[in-house]
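WARN no homologs supplied; continuing
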Amino acid sequence: MKELRNIAIIAHVDHGKTTLIDQMLKQSGTFRDNQHVAERVMDSNDIEKERGITILAKCTSIRWGDVKLNIVDTPGHADFGGEVERVLSMVDGVLLLVDAAEGPMPQTKFVLMKALALGLRPIVVINKVDRPDARVTEVVNEVFDLFVALNANDEQLDFPIAYASGRNGWAAMSMEDPRVDLKCLFDLVVSYVREPNVDKEAHFSMLSTILDADNFLGRILIGKVYSGRVKINQAIKSLRHDGTEIEQGRVTKLFTFRGIERIPVEEAVAGDIIAIAGLLETTVADTICATDVKDPIKATPVDPPTMAITMTVNDSPLAGTEGSKVTSRMIRERLFKEAESNVAIRVTESAGNDAFEVGGRGELQLGVLIENMRREGFELSVSRPRVLTKKDEAGNILEPAEEVQVDVDEAYSGVVVEKISLRKGEMQDMSPSGGGKIRIKFIVPSRGLIGYQGEFLTDTRGTGIMSRIFHSYIPYKGDIEGRRNGVLISTDSGVAVAYALWNLEERGFMMINPGVKVYQGMIIGQHNRDNDLEVNPLKGKQLTNIRAAGADEAVKLTPPKVLTLEEAISYIQEDELVEVTPKSVRIRKRYLDPNMRKRMDKKVG
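OK structure emitted
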């Protein structure tokens, strides 16, 4: 068998991991010269392509001379950190990508901390060195300081550095070297990353790290073979982390990776990353092994969820008109299937089995799950996110807090500091980051950040960059002021009329267009004042026999502020829900009947 190297590419979001892998695939001869390949070929799911982010970890494999390189592309966003933690157990080395202008960001710190804790020796790649605002020397020093702060050992501190432009497909060992291709980076990986430390003669065992599904083959489990060999039709079993047996079965299909494709093979050997089919109940973090193996492989524990939403069946008057999957049974099956493959998601059922609490790492992760479900035909009602608290030994409430780093123009630093302090954030550090920008670090309660991203972009005129990552549990900070304005609530059901919306504009801004179906209790806009106001969006112009000159001119409406799914989820209050269907995102009161709302308000009051 040829030599093997297993590496993961880790970095903060947008530092160029997936683009670099594109170039590695092209330059290693994985694709034919005339083969058309999409940009960011590893971002295969629709939401990844639309948002330009990696959500799911994926494996690929390339040949470099006599060496097979298995490469894992990992997510860079903190909400998908569970994926990063899992896949690092599959590899023997990491390429740490750092943007030459932005330098190490919060997620860089997170992924590096996980890699160092596993004893991996990173190769540092300073990417995008051809950016006009690159500050290469300072960034190298910042990376070294980060290694020291994370208690890297002497061997890890002696890291090699490559300078690269992933988009333009070149890497060099110094800034003065010729900028031709990625050859030096391939050679560095082969020489610096260790071969897998495995026993090829022992009984077969592998750790399942990624769960995939295939319409023809069923469940496919992907992971690294830790020992022995496995062949097609071999009898195998699976063990939980505590050693209890889950099931027995046979290997019906066996795959290794070549480029972005899975290649069927008859046999796989220790050290390789493989995909295996034939087991029905085994999932992520379980050990798949020969029938006489007794002890499971130790799996890395994953940080628990910090935020939760409640999902229920859609019970609005328009329920079932736009989606095909509307029952609680269907929602339950889909959520438990998600929790099975995504270890960072936790699902619990309510007593009545019609509501499900879904815990995750943040708004983005939960928003992506809901977006995937609506595209699959589901209709749901979703509550406002809330943080998951816990108690210390003395019985005091602790809440999750995040380390937030913002890069903003100096002119906007004041408003950002003010807004974050209102959300109970505490500033830790403030320093110039070049080009008239300031870098500020805060520790902020997670619940204070719900819905802040949009406000932050507005306050910084779209120029600010905010990164956040889980920091720790801190003593509960007390009440945080939420939305100050009330909402405009429809009193009637029907189709919204332009004339009625035009008349309502002086009351506040609209969130719907004319011609949209509305119902009693649905929120159609935001009130200028702090109280809710019930309005009629169906009221057309009174027609008379005598028409005044100019009476029929078209009304000119201010364009409405139509909220996206994530904006809607973070906008709503405790007594409101987001109705999600394949075609629409609507905001509504939890109780649609105005009399019921008043009764419930009195109870709460």
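The domain at 3-192 is CATH 3.40.50.300 (Rossmann fold).
OK
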